[in-house]
Design a protein that fits this description.
The complex is a heterodimer. By secondary structure, chain A is an alpha/beta fold. Chain A starts with a strand and ends with a strand. Chain A is globular and about 75 Å long. In chain A, 27% of the residues lie in helices and 21% in strands. In chain A, helix 1 runs parallel beside helix 2. In chain B, a hairpin with a 5-residue loop joins strand 6 and strand 7. In chain B, helix 6 packs parallel to helix 10. Chain B is elongated, with a radius of gyration of 27 Å. The interface between A and B is medium-sized, with 24 and 22 residues.
Chain lengths: 405, 609
């Protein structure tokens, strides 16, 4: 398979019907729409103004707040509206703890029915009956969009049952085994996405008083299973509202990428989310490149802030809490060796435009910002090449040979 | 309910990128003159769009706007370089200059301004060499330029101690130098300070040399560069002197385009070296001097309509078809705002009722109209001379007088206690009140848009509310101006009350005084107040005197109150005769005691109907 597949990600919308949700979300349905104060309407405008497009929209859960029925319907309609404006023929979601009565089933004995009644079909608008039944019975479904396999996993399956299950996600041994079976039956794909709400790997604790407790139980086992397939995987999840781009733990350098999507429109209290913005993403997957060289992708990211609307997510300059626009993922590096390759290629040049580096070493677009920083450091220390940035991109603008004393 | 922040948008173009400015740019009639390949000085009050006009000449903005370029305006071939005055560094340097360790204030300001020009120039040079400018006539293929060598040569001009290896590195060094300069100055010895200052004595000469170098390296030798300097009224005197002196003979390959709000006299060198308007530079006023119908009003109206459409497109793009004609959106006094009626020559249909109503309650008006031989039973019966010299001339006065004066039943004319501002509602009137001032328009019209009915109308009551809010804002701004002996607020009030009495006094005046001349009898305090009023746009200079205004001062010049204030003082939107300011101020007590209103919005006793 060749061609570029664009995967839009909208996570944790937390739409609410009225001002009771004021502290939770920027999208209150009965509130007047004011430009730059409404992430949903602002995104529609951004799409119209800039011609953004995607092939599929993924939504890793929590589209509403505390399972509010009217807001749930409106949010699902909004996600589909955005998909339509993006020209995306597929919308796939994974259920979040706020999309169901996750704590107590006494007032709503069948906690899944509101979701089952959503139209277009939830969690996958183009689901066959078999895919739907799989999701509700086996807690996952497998879809395919332009050569990319997408597994949507319901990590809220055990909520409203068992003690304190609502506090975290869970994937059971049975479900992991069933996913493995299906993957085995289907055979290899160029690229694979696992979509779920809860994070399969703990996030760093905010502080010793605020530990991360809500990760997906058995997440490590799930990741290990995905890694064992020897196929390229990216896990896209929501829930944390705290954007991160990581590799899963494991012995292999080919561990899945963990894409922790920031929230699309939740209110982010500075006490817990210092420096974090609401974010919207389009992941660009070049299947031609991937089929030759393996896992690779680029994240196009936008930040939303009240009063500013959506803006291209700027480089982080060391700050956490956002995924910057242009962040790569997939290509693992050996910083010393890679820096040496770059230096050798341009040996003797006083000024090297970064565009020339990308042309000579296309993989450099697919290294994570953290890895890029390491390569740049080695270029400076080992090869006396200064990387200058112009503030607009996470990549250097140019490399300049250190002046001889 | 969240607080409504209109658009959540910057109202000052300074904070926006050139590309962003281009997306919502609405060219006023003055744009062609500003864009011409010649030196010019743009003059206008705060918020009148000076910064936007200058920033639109930045090639990045022009490139983003290229699809919308009007046929009437030639696409500039010079490279515009926008240089803001940064209030932060002015303040930092002023503090540094106050330090006992620093005594060469002039040199300090010139150093930083030179580096500010350098920073802006480097940004535009980098853009011209980058892929971003591909497709633009300003683009230079980077491979054709030895950037390493160019950067070193430019560093030699601006930062001789620095060995920059690229334009980006030079840009970083220049920014760092600007930020560090106040601290650096404290550490330098006197001789080091002199050495530093010697480099930067003439920012324009250095900018010209830099542009010339770029032209040489880029093999683009005929290219002109325009230095676009904004907010010169807050620039320290040293910078003003150098920049205005440069207008006399701008160094090749520079053009100079400046913007300022006339607040004080500009320090031109007097004598043969003094730059002269029309010879050395054009003066482009952004205010519309007259209120009369005619070309300026049509131009202002066209601009307002275009700005309205841009606003609609921004705020409610889904209804832009419905709202594209503002004359159908803003409800006005019956018939007054309909284009169809305006276009007709049917004076009777338009004004007949108002003339008859006023004549019925106002003997002085009735006598005047009879003495002129106008047939009140049907205004269309008048001949063309009477139509032009009487009916059309007094029509704006009649509308205001008829609306705000009533009879108490004993044949005595009295002021009707009306808070409502109906005569100023409707698109045409609102546009006139706006003075074509982009910031006033954006704020007021955007606020009114939030009251849009489902049928796409904005009711008079809602327009009224926002007009009152606009009056509150202008009053707050006037009150905030510093005062010594006399306050600007008192002066404006004296003027407004005087003009109001001319229009709504017991006797109808067909040719009331609605403007004033600053005569020799006016003292210094009043001049200071006038300068402040001019700065915020509360008074508007009348035709033909813009150059004198900022070169020679205000005495001898004619002004009117801004239309912004017309709804408060119930003034018609016409220019009227002029009276000497000293005469107005002499009669001030008389006017106030005769019952004219004080400029205050405490109108609790007035009814809203």
């Amino acid at each position: 398979m060749t061609g570029v597949v664009r995967v839009a990600v909208l996570s944790d919308l937390h739409f609410a019907s009225d001002e009771n949700g004021e502290k939770e979300t920027h999208v209150i349905l009965n509130r007047q729409v004011v430009p730059k104060q409404h992430p949903y309407e602002d995104l529609l405008r951004l799409i119209e103004d800039t011609g953004l497009a995607a092939d599929v929209v993924l939504c890793p859960g929590d589209i509403t707040y505390q399972a509010e029925q009217a807001a749930l319907k409106a949010a699902w309609a909004a996600v589909n509206d955005i998909a339509s404006k993006l020209g995306a023929a597929h919308v796939i979601a994974a259920t979040g703890n706020h999309d169901i009565m996750s704590r107590d089933a006494s007032t709503s004995p069948e906690i899944w029915e509101q979701l089952k009644q959503l139209r277009p079909k939830y969690p996958y608008t183009k689901a066959t009956l078999e895919q739907q039944l799989y999701y509700w019975a086996e807690h996952f479904l497998v879809a395919e969009v332009n050569g990319v396999r997408i597994v949507s996993l319901n990590t809220c399956n055990c909520h409203a049952r068992g003690k304190d299950e609502y506090l975290h996600g869970r994937v059971t041994d049975y479900t992991i085994a069933r996913i493995a079976d299906v993957l085995l039956q289907q055979g290899k794909r160029d690229f694979n996405v696992l979509l779920c709400h809860h994070h399969p790997m703990k996030h760093p604790d905010l502080s010793q008083s605020f530990p991360d407790y809500s990760e997906m139980k058995q997440g490590a086992k799930l990741l290990s299973m995905l890694e064992s397939t020897a196929e390229p995987w990216v896990v896209i999840h929501g829930h944390k509202h705290s954007p991160r781009l990581d590799y899963a733990q494991g012995a292999s350098t080919d561990a899945p990428v963990i894409f922790s999507a920031g929230s699309f429109s939740a209110v982010l209290s500075p006490a817990y989310f210092a420096g974090t913005s609401n974010q919207f993403y389009i992941l660009e997957l070049d299947l031609g490149y991937i089929s030759k060289y393996g896992k690779a992708g680029v994240v196009h990211a936008w930040d939303w802030q009240e009063g500013q609307g959506w803006q291209v997510a700027p480089p982080m300059a060391g700050a956490k809490g956002r995924i910057p626009n242009g962040a790569g993922f997939g290509h693992k590096v050996n910083p010393s060796y890679d820096a040496q390759s770059v230096a050798q290629k341009f040996s003797g040049e006083r000024k090297i435009a970064w565009g020339s580096v990308e042309q000579a070493f296309p993989w450099i677009r697919y290294v994570t910002p953290a890895d890029l920083e390491k390569i740049v450091k080695r270029l400076k220390i080992d090869h006396k090449l200064d990387a200058l940035t112009d503030g607009r991109s996470i990549h250097p603008y140019e490399l300049l040979q250190e002046p001889t004393p | 309910m969240k607080q409504l922040h209109i658009l959540g948008e910057h109202y000052n173009a300074r904070g926006l990128s050139p590309e962003r400015i281009a997306t919502s740019f609405v060219p006023p009639s003055q744009f062609e003159e500003v864009a011409a390949a010649s030196n010019c000085v743009i003059v206008g009050p705060r918020g009148s769009g000076k910064t936007t006009l200058l920033r639109m000449l930045d090639p990045r903005a022009l490139h983003a706007w290229r699809g919308d370029f009007g046929r009437a305006v030639d696409y500039p071939t010079y490279v515009g370089v926008f240089v803001p005055i940064d209030a932060a560094w002015v303040s930092a340097l002023t503090n540094a200059a106050r330090s006992p360790d620093v005594d060469n204030e002039t040199e300090i300001y010139l150093s930083v301004y030179t580096l500010s020009i350098a920073r802006s120039l480097i940004d535009v040079m980098r853009w011209r060499l980058a892929p971003d400018s591909e497709g633009s006539s300003f683009h230079i293929t980077s491979k054709e330029v030895d950037e390493y060598s160019l950067a070193q040569k430019l560093a030699g001009l601006w930062l001789p101690a620095v060995k920059a290896r690229s334009l980006l590195e030079l840009r970083v060094e220049v920014s760092t130098e600007i930020a560090m300069l106040p601290r650096k100055l404290r550490r330098l010895s006197d001789s080091e300070k002199k050495d530093l200052a010697a480099i930067y004595l003439n920012p324009l000469e250095l900018a010209a040399a830099a542009c010339d170098l770029f032209n040489l390296y880029a093999n683009d030798s005929a290219r002109k560069w325009a230095i676009l300097c904004d907010e010169l009224e807050i620039a320290p005197l040293a910078i003003q002197e150098v920049l205005f002196g440069g207008l006399r003979a701008a160094p090749h390959p520079l053009l100079l385009k400046y913007a300022l709000t006339p607040r004080q006299k500009i320090p031109f060198i007097e004598g043969p070296g003094e730059p002269l308007p029309a010879n050395d530079f054009d003066v482009v006023p952004l205010s519309y001097p007259t209120r009369e119908e005619g070309t300026p009003e049509r131009e202002r109206e066209q601009f307002c309509v275009a700005l309205w459409r841009s606003l609609v497109n921004d705020i409610c793009p889904d209804r832009k078809e419905l709202l594209s004609n503002p004359f159908k959106v803003f409800e006005g006094a019956a018939g007054a705002d309909s284009r169809e009626i305006r276009a007709k020559r049917d004076l009777e249909a338009k004004f007949g009722d108002a003339f008859r109503q006023l004549a019925a309650k106002d003997d002085s008006f009735s006598n005047y109209i009879n003495s002129k031989g106008v047939d009140l039973s049907n205004l269309n019966n008048s001949n063309q001379r009477l139509r032009d010299s009487v009916v059309r001339k007094v029509r704006p006065l009649v509308e205001i007088r008829n609306f705000y004066l009533g009879s108490d039943g004993s044949d005595k004319l009295k002021r009707v206690s009306r808070r409502v501002l109906t005569p100023y509602c409707g698109a045409r009137q609102l546009f006139a009140v706006s003075e074509g001032h982009p910031r006033w328009l954006k704020y007021t019209l955007a606020s009114m848009l939030s009251y849009l009915t489902s049928k796409g109308k904005i009711k008079i009551a809602d327009q009224n509310r926002e007009l009152e809010n606009s009056l509150e804002r202008i009053e707050a701004r006037i009150r905030a101006l510093p005062a010594e002996q006399m306050s600007t607020h008192d002066l404006i009030d004296a003027l407004g009350s005087f003009f109001s009495a001319q229009v709504l006094g017991p006797v109808f005046r067909p040719d009331p005084s609605l403007s004033f001349i600053v005569d020799d009898g006016v003292d210094k305090d009043v001049i200071t107040c006038l300068e402040q009023a001019l700065y915020i746009g509360a008074i508007i200079p009348m035709k033909g005197n813009i150059y004198n205004l900022f070169a020679k001062g205000l005495v001898g010049e004619r002004f009117r109150l801004s239309n912004w204030l017309a709804p408060f003082y119930k003034l018609p939107l016409v220019a009227g005769k002029a009276t000497n300011l000293s005469t107005i101020l002499l009669n001030r007590g008389e006017v106030v005691s005769s019952g004219a209103v004080q400029f205050s919005l405490r109108l609790e006793n007035e009814s809203f109907n």
